[in-house]
Design goal:
Mean pLDDT: 82
Largest sheet: none
Strand content: under 5%
Order of helices and strands: HHHHHHH
Number of strands: 0
Distance between the termini: 49 Å
Number of helices: 7
Structural class: mainly alpha
Number of domains: 2
Length: 222
């Protein structure tokens, strides 16, 4: 039996739970909630809401973007860029905190930078950070969060490049719908031509058989 062809218009949804940058963004959100509770005023400071909302926006727009990617790579790219922008905003908030509190933004010259960078690269899940969330000093915690922001941004940039390449190659949903319709019509036309050729061959075979029968009948009557 001939295998039935499929004409896919909707893409298979990417599972955000399998995206490492999503796990890191979820961790960053929880870290930010704890950081603002521990080190920022409970009332009268808009920075608290801004930081928590930026962290949440990064996380939520990854979820929404991958869901919208089923029908629109363009919308997926837009929403993931919104997520990136939110993470970049949060990164600047942590840098501002360190500057405003006369604390160091750790770079490669800092004695703890390499160890912190390895920890942030190798650990994605919030459970791996939880033992430290209530023990890190504000300078430590802000530098970890800042580093997570940078890592997430780089990971998302690479992921977005892949999505953009796929969009250029495959187009959006309109192009996929057109391709599916053309593919369906082409297959139907090819099936019709094959059926017509088969019918013509059968007619020719019937004509040959009729000629043989007529010949045999004529010979027997003589």
């Amino acid at each position: 039996m001939e295998e039935k062809k499929e004409y896919n218009v909707l893409r298979k949804q990417a599972n955000w739970h399998n995206l490492w940058f999503y796990h890191k963004t979820l961790t960053l959100y929880h870290l930010t909630v704890v950081f603002t509770q521990r080190f920022l005023p409970a009332h009268g400071d808009r920075t608290v809401d801004q930081m928590v909302q930026a962290a949440r926006s990064g996380k939520q727009n990854i979820v929404e973007g991958t869901a919208d990617g089923v029908t629109s790579t363009e919308m997926e790219i837009k929403l993931l860029n919104v997520a990136r922008a939110s993470i970049q905003e949060l990164q600047e908030d942590y840098a501002d905190y360190l500057r405003n509190h006369q604390q160091s933004l750790w770079d490669s010259s800092h004695k703890r930078y390499e160890a912190m960078l390895r920890f942030c690269r190798n650990n994605n899940n919030v459970e791996q950070y939880e033992p430290f969330l209530n023990t890190w000093r504000d300078e430590e915690m802000a530098n970890v969060a800042y580093t997570l922001c940078r890592i997430i941004d780089k990971m998302m940039t690479n992921y977005l490049k892949k999505l953009e390449a796929r969009f250029v190659a495959e187009g959006g949903i309109k192009e996929r719908m057109t391709a599916a319709r053309i593919g369906y019509r082409t297959d139907k036309e090819e099936a019709l031509r094959a059926a017509q050729q088969e019918i013509a061959a059968l007619k020719a075979q019937v004509a040959r058989l009729q000629a043989i029968i007529e010949k045999l009948t004529k010979e027997q009557s003589q």
